Amino acid sequence: YQGRPRASEADRRTALLEGQAALHRWGVTSVHSVEAPESFRIVEDLERAGELRIRVLHHMPQRFIDSLIECGIVSGFGNDWLRVGGIKYFTDGALGSCTAWMLEPYVDSDDCGIRRLEPEEFGHDVQRAASAGLAATVHAIGDAAVRMTLDALEAAGSRGLSIPHRIEHLQCVHPDDLRRAGRLGIVASMQPSHLLTDIALAGPRWGPERSRWTLPLRSLLEAGTILAFGSDAPVEEADPREGFYSAVARRDRDGHPSDGWYPEERIGGLDVLKAYAEGPAHAAGDLDRRGRLSPGYYCDLAAWDVDPVTAEPERMLSAQVAATVVGGDLVFSA
Fold first, then answer.
1. N or C: which end of the chain has fewer CB within 10 A?
2. What is the pTM of this model?
């Protein structure tokens, strides 16, 4: 990618506005994002110009810890439209490339994947940032990466933070660690639409015992974990319909397996709705202002042509947004 020409500021601005419009068509009213500093500045410019009509929590790459601490910037800094989130750390790779860091080797291999950060260095950075008011937002997919992350976040604590620590993905969780996130108040930021591909990938790579604990939504929920659902765009489309379908049905796009993949981990439509609405608001430290339709809360909402709480999972795949409202303004109407 080093040889690819950099997009101009004008092109970035146009792309952000086009992306915002696409999100409104999908009924999305807020995003949690990790972008380059150049994009952050453009989002800030849009906010100042009154053109930012989606609420943004912007997580900062690990390499900016020193600069943020030096400037006194903390998680939660900003306004109603644009706020600083946590420090984004990457502890491992991905399932598809067999680079997610596992406690035991992959099937028919002696390879456990890739650990991208040394535990001691990682723990030190998390502690240092947390002490300065910066929460952690940690990419962890394999069960070894999830465990190392839980260890680091538990040691750092969350005292004085305006937003909670969070783990991104948690695609494979060892059963011994299932209750830890809930006990520690760590948000599980998960993308249920990943099941659409993980159903085919997990078994050949992780085997049945570990596949059983792939995206264990119900187990985490029953352990008191706050679930915050998203899309992982641009890895997946920022379209919540596939997430609803995946979390409730645990089937692939062709409807297989018919009874659901490890159906004991399916969750209900109301739980999914809460994970898409209340969960991200909790993760942003905004549960007193958004995530619900209630007096005194932001007037951010989406109206669908189907009730996601009671609809059959397959019906959600064809559901349509009738209207999207942000800050009391109609930003999309079908």
1. N
2. 0.95
